[in-house]
Amino acid sequence: xxxxxxxxxxxxxxxxxxxxxxxxxxxxxxxxxxxxxxxxxxxxxxxxxxxxxxxxxxxxxxxxxxxxxxxxxxxxxxxxxxxxxxxxxxxxxxxxxxxxxxxxxxxxxxxxxxxxxxxxxxxxxxxxxxxxxxxxxxxxxxxxxxxxxxxxxxxx
Length: 156
Prior knowledge:
The chain is α+β, with helices and mostly antiparallel strands. The protein contains five helices and six strands.
């Protein structure tokens, strides 16, 4: 029950962050706090690409939630299920990520990015357009990821 409440709380936070972005033009990370938050997300992706599961998990807060492929996973479930596949995928394909917005409000930060992923994975051609939203909380001088939401589609 605690996981469901915590997951709903993080999803609500992500939705509120998305709403706060408004419908105007988006911008890349501005200011040292936003740049630091964006660097946290990049470090998480770098760890996946390097095949470093320990480093990737270190960027996830103890109560983190990962939303991908229609599923909602706790940090521990992600670590024991999808993490290995995400590492294999990240190492096999080329992904160009573009941070479109990073913002900080006190001890809360959120980042929105788009991506283009291409290559071969498990004998199949990959050509995807992706979207990512990450919610973080301040952890001392840096940030920890509280929620990640990934979605992707084939180009039209």
